[in-house]
Amino acid sequence: xxxxxxxxxxxxxxxxxxxxxxxxxxxxxxxxxxxxxxxxxxxxxxxxxxxxxxxxxxxxxxxxxxxxxxxxxxxxxxxxxxxxxxxxxxxxxxxxxxxxxxxxxxxxxxxxxxxxxxxxxxxxxxxxxxxxxxxxxxxxxxxxxxxxxxxxxxxxxxxxxxxxxxxxxxxxxxxxxxxxxxxxxxxxxxxxxxxxxxxxxxxxxxxxxxxxxxxxxxxxxxxxxxxxxxxxxxxxxxxxxxxxxxxxxxxxxxxxxxxxxxxxxxxxxxxxxx
Length: 274
Hints:
This protein has 274 residues and is mainly α. Helix content is 73%, strand content 0%.
């Protein structure tokens, strides 16, 4: 993949993804304050608004599939499909993906405790019913775009760390309209936008670490995104929000990401092979 072509392709991907999300799907819902749907609160809007909300969530993956087809044809789509079905990533990387989320979640729960708050651990089994739809509304709808299309193209010019931060920034900005859409977790739980952007930039480093160490498997990103989204959703729904917690919510993920960068180095975020 030539650097110049790769950069043009990723810029086109970013422009289409943000443009469609802000101007066609999510932006109008946010601007006119049309209710959608929430997995953590009893908020439900009209069917057409829910359809726009769900379709908007698939924009990153749909744009990536469309651009792959235009630029590489059927062979590119087949390769994309193979990477999505690349389940054999090694048990240690499945374990690493789960361990990162569990360790970071324990850090979040410890933070809640240090702030003098309580947390109902029963929320974890209580929200298990949302786990199945979450693999579609998040991992599948986004990861073909973020890690399957954009990340590798950015890494043709910049190192793994810089590429991770760039993907994370766009990923965070893409969430912007959700903070003004009635029914979304971001709106209903009064999450801070800047805090989320910083958090997903840190988490993006962890995605790249897993991605690069599993030969670019899109399935790895889907699996990690699934586990991460579920745990983050549960913690967010049970935490008592305040100005301080809003800013330290993603601190455990930032610490884990920093450790990964220190150990695996920013150039490739992967172990050097002989």
